Structure formats: C-alpha cells, structure tokens
Amino acid sequence: MENQEIEKKMMSIVAEDGSIEEVEVILAFEFKDTKKEYVIYTKNEKDENENITVYVSNVDRSSGEPKLLGVDDEEEWNRVKDVLR
Amino acid sequence: MTDDRIELVDWEYGQYAEERPARQIRTRALSFQNIKAKFNAFRIARLQNKLENKIEKALTREYTDNNYERKIEKSANVIARLEEKILLLSKQNVPTNYVASRAIKLRKNMIDNLTYHTTNYYGSLYTIGLERRDEVMGPEIIAEDVMPEEVPVEENYVSDVPVAEETPVNEDVIRPFIEPEPVVQPAAIPNNEEIDVEQSNLDRQSIVDAINEGFSQVNAEDAPVINPVDVPNPAPQAEATPVSEAPAIDKEAIREAVEEAFRKLEAERTNFDQHVAEAVPETPEAVRVSRNNTTSVHADQFDEEGNRIRRPKKYDYTPMTDEEIREAQIKLGFDENGNLIDAPVVEEKPAEEVVIQEVPIEQAFVPAENKVVDEPVREVPIVVPDRPEEPALELEDEPNMFDIIPEAEEAPAKEVELPESARVMTIDDYETLKEKILQLRKQKEESQQQKLDAERRAQEAAQEAEAARVQYEESQASYLERMNMLRAYAESLEAACDENERGIEAAERESRESEGILQSQRAEIDRTNKIVSEIDLMMEGNPEIEKPATKKV
User: Fold this and answer.
1) Based on the structure, what is the number of domains in chain B?
2) Is B21 part of any domain?
3) Most exposed residue of A59, A84, B199, B319, measured as fewest CB within 10 angstroms of its CB?
C-alpha cells in the first residue's frame, strides 16, 4: 500500500459536484515558451482492445488554489499530442 | 518527448479543482508504459539529485551543539527515505523495514565519522593538552573538570581510513608543541586572521578558567601587579603553584611561572611555525578544512605580553574548488557523480541484526588516562547501495511507439506537412496568409458568437421546457384529483342506484303479491255473486220466502 503510493504519483480531482476522484499522474510538463503546465493522468480505464484512456488538463496555478482547465485551443492540443508521441 | 520545448515537472499533487473537463486520448499499452517510464526516469533523476544534496549536507554539516544526535538521526531518516523511493521507482526489491534499518546504519556511520574526525584529527592535540594539564595543574584541577573532553588516542595511531583534505602535518612533530594550532599558517598569525581549525575548546577553556581563578585571588590582594591573562594551553611549568589552593599561593612564583610559560610557549610556537612552514611549504591560502570535518573552533592567539588577541568574529573559510571536491570524492571512494566506487554492496538486513555503535560518542570523550584506542572507529561515511545505471532521460523517438489514437475518432494519422517556416515565403504568400488569418479570425469570432447564441437559445429552451414540465405536472395533479373525485362520485351513484333497484324489486314483488290477492278476491267475489244470483232466482219463484234487505255486489 505505502510502496505503491510512493511508486505512483497520485492526484485528487475535485469535480464540480464536489465529488473527489483519485487519479494517477503519468506525466507533467511545461512548455518552455508559453510556460503553460499540463498534467497527463489516467483513471486506468481500458477499452476492449486494452487501450488505456489518458486525460490531459492544463494546470492553472495563477491563483492560490491550483485548478485544472481543459485544453480548448486546437493548436495547443496538437502541441500536447506532439509531446506525447 | 525528446524535444526541448518542454520541461518535465514534478509536484506533490494534492487536491485540484476541475474547472473544465480534461481532454482524452486513448493510448495503446506500450505507448502508455513508455510515457510512464520516461516520467519515472525523470522522477528518479530528481530524487537522486536530492539524495546527493542531502548526503552532501549531512557530511559537511557542523554539529556545534548538543543536539547533534537528533540532527544526525533526522538526516539519516531523510536519506533512507529518499533511497527507498529511488529503489521503489527503479523497481528494485526493497525490504519492508528498509527505512528503519537503513536509518540506523546511516546514523551509526555518521556518528562514527564524527567521532573519527574528533579523535583522529585532533587526538594528538587533546593528548598534549592533557599532558600539560597534568604537569601544570596537578590531579586536583583535572578532577574538578565538569566536562571531560580528552579523547584517548594512541600517540602513534594513524588511521587507515582515507579522509579528504587532512592537514598534512605529522602528528609526531606536533606533539612536543603546546600551541593547539596544528594547521596554522605562519603568515596568518601576525595579521590576526582566523585559523579554521576544528577542535573543542573545552580543555583549553577549563585551564584558562582555572588560571583566571588563581589570578583573581592574587589580584584581590595585589590588584595592580598582575592582570588576568588568558592562557590557551599552558606550557609545562612544574614550579607553578596549584591554583586551587588560594591561601598557599605565592603570587610572585605564579607570576614568574606564567611568564616563563609564555616564553616557552612563544618559543615553541616559533618552532612549530617553522615546522609547519617546512611541512606545508606550498600553502598560500588559509587552511582548508575537509568537507567531512564537523566543528570549527578558533585557536587563540596572543601578543608579546601574553594577552589574548581579540579576533573579529568571522570565518576565513575558503571553499574547495570543484576539482578539489572531485579529488576528495575519489579519495573517499566516490566517483564524480557521488556514487560509491568499489565499495562492497551492503546487503540489507532486518533491523534486529543492525548493531548499534558499541561505544556511544559520549564515552569517547571520557578522559581515559591516556588509554589507547585499538580499533578504528570510522567506517565508510555513507553507504549507498549500487544500483544499475539509470537510463538517461532521453526519450525514444520510435515511430512505432506513436500509438496515440485521437479521441472520438479512429482515423489514420495525418500526414506530416512541412512547416510554413520551411518554405520560401513571398510577399504574396504573406498577404494571402494574412488575409486568410483575418478571415479565419473573423470566422472564429462569428462562430463563437453563434455558439454563444445557440447556447443562450438552448438555455432559454431548457427554461421553457422546465416551465412546461412544471405546468404539466401541475395539470396532471389537478386532473388526477378531479378524476378521483369523479370516481368517488360515480361509485356513490352506483351504490344509490343499486339501492334503488333493490327497492324497486321489493316494491314490484309486493305489487305482484297484491295483484294476486286482488285477483283471488275478485274470483271469490264473482263466485259469491253467482251463488247470490242463483239464490235470488230461487227466491223469486217462491213467494213464501222473504227477500233479503242487502243488495247484490
């Protein structure tokens, strides 16, 4: 239990309805030019072909509490996908 | 992930509020593991860097107060925890009680290390101090010492443990001298510069206090004659009167003895300086201290009259250069990256097998009457288990690894186009592109506006739908209520009808019965009338019979 916690990087996501979900962070990075930070995480969901769904959020630390935003801009989204290739 | 556009980051993630939903990508298992491995390697590299810093800090820390054991224990725990994290992330086997047993071992090594530097490096000085004190003070003064600080060290003891930056002064040569500045730089003394040596000041201070006490007693009787003088480490002066016996003090004898002691001290220091100058001819700078050394204490200096020279409270510590640090690391058995070279792999054992240091550090400072320390007390400072070379954070760029499936579509990957910047651009291209951008921007704004309008309409429709739903529910409720009332009314009517029918049936039955009675009565009447008629006929033919008064019905 404790070893797994060390091995895995966990993060709690508080949804709009107040529910909290534990997810595993698999990558976090920042674009050097835009200084935008992104976190890639998974809920370990697999489809019938064993493909794993990963989630990408933009981390906003501008205010006191860090927030997870979506990746709305398509260009930005392509850059993120590029990083993951 | 090999591009240099990004910088991996590693936070201690807590709770994050999700303001907008994340976008999703489906990855094949191989790609997923690949991404994870890269991040893992990054985390391991970070932790190793942190571990090296912690080890460096633990080795170079100065333990100047009594809480050194607690501080050492804390450092050992931090280091052990970091090591455990690295091992776990490296997918290596880690014993269950790794942190506890490892911390105990590290703590022992660190205390041994500290003890070693205290005893070996300055052992000869403490020994000298003890000898001189025996000669000058006698056993009474020694017995009054509150804090025994002499560390018994064999006079010819030479450690076989390599220590970086040890002062290259032969202990046998130092021993005959009194001045406790074995690494003093000759030029530093006249300039009142600090000499960074490491030594406990306790033995000297106790002697100085004892002499000051003697002088204060003398001055009480003859103040102008002698001023209290701080003596760092008195020279042998067998004729000195024991200062603990105030009434028997011969002031003149003490004065002479002290002056004689200072003369000898000065002479010996001169010899010592000469020796140091010979032994360390190429030392142009202040003495540097080993990174593994612990406490730093100044040696006192005195002027020609024996008065202590006050020195500014600053340290003249010259940090080691990177080259010197590397050399010192190699001397200590570490490579340039701080990894242990040729060190035996320390096999982890359960906590109960770990043997705590047999001799606590406090006991090492007990005056042991020049006993000889037979066994070396130092071990390898920090034992870091060998681990396989970690892969560099070089992310592979295999085309097959790009298994990302764009969300909500299974379409094949788009062909890679040359970036615009790779082509030769003309002004027309620029104008075209500019126009296109403006058009697209306008289009984007319009579409955004349309999207907002659509959202607003959708919201209004939703509100209307909600209102209709409420109205429908109300009408339904009203309808149901009335239906229930009607149903109840109908039921009551039905009941009344049933009752009436039952009444009608009873009345008809009664009517039928009455009719029957009536008919039977009529038949009886007819029969009676017939009889009466027959009787009347018979009476009319016979005049003797008187006619009845009643009439026929």
Assistant:
1) 2
2) no
3) B319
Q: Are residues B455 and B358 in the same domain?
A: no
B15:A52 CB<8 A? no
> Which residue range is the domain that position B259 belongs to?
93-364
CB < 8 Å to B89, chain A? 6-7
| Residues B196/B315, Cβ–Cβ less than 8 Å | yes
Alpha carbons B207 and B150: distance in angstroms, whole number: 13
Cβ separation B36–A27 shorter than 8 A: yes
ipTM score over 0.90, yes or no = no
B39: which chain A residues are within 8 Å (Cβ-Cβ)?
Answer: 9, 25-28
Alpha-carbon torsion angle B277, B282, B283, B285, nearest 10: 130
Task: Please tell me whether residues B355 and B439 are part of one structural domain.
Answer: no
Query: Do B301 and B446 share a domain, yes or no?
Result: no
Closest CB to B21 among A60, A70, A83: A70
On whether both B242 and B119 belong to a single domain, the answer is: yes
Is residue B158 domain-shared with residue B281, that is, in the same domain?
yes
Is A40 buried (19+), middle (13-18) or exposed (0-12) by CB count in 10 A?
buried
Write out the two tokens for B296. 């730093």
Does one domain contain both B354 and B470? no
pLDDT digits (tens, 9 = 90+) for B488-514: 999 999 999 999 999 999 999 999 999
Kind of pairing, strands A52-60 and B23-27? antiparallel
- CB count, 10 Å around CB of B263? 12
Would you call A36 an interface residue with chain B, using a CB distance cutoff of 8 Å? no
- What whole-number distance in Å separates Cα of residue B55 and Cα of residue B46? 14
Amino acid at B147: M
Among chain B residues, CA nearest to A77? B23
- Of B333, B364, B395, the residue that ends a domain is B364
Q: Do B28 and A55 touch (CB under 8 A)?
A: no
Instruction: Closest CB to A25: pick one of B5, B7, B13.
Output: B13
Better-predicted residue by pLDDT, A6 or B169? A6
> Could you give the CA distance from residue B104 to residue B82 in angstroms, rounded to a whole number?
15
Whether B356 and B459 share a structural domain: no
Residue-wise pLDDT for B97-118, tens only, equals: 788 888 888 877 777 776 666 6
Is B267 a domain residue? yes
pLDDT of residue B132: 35
Note whether B459 and B344 are same-domain residues: no
User: A with B: how many residue pairs have Cβ under 8 Å apart?
Assistant: 144
Substitution target in B8, B9, B10, B16 with the highest count of A β-carbons within 10 Å is B16
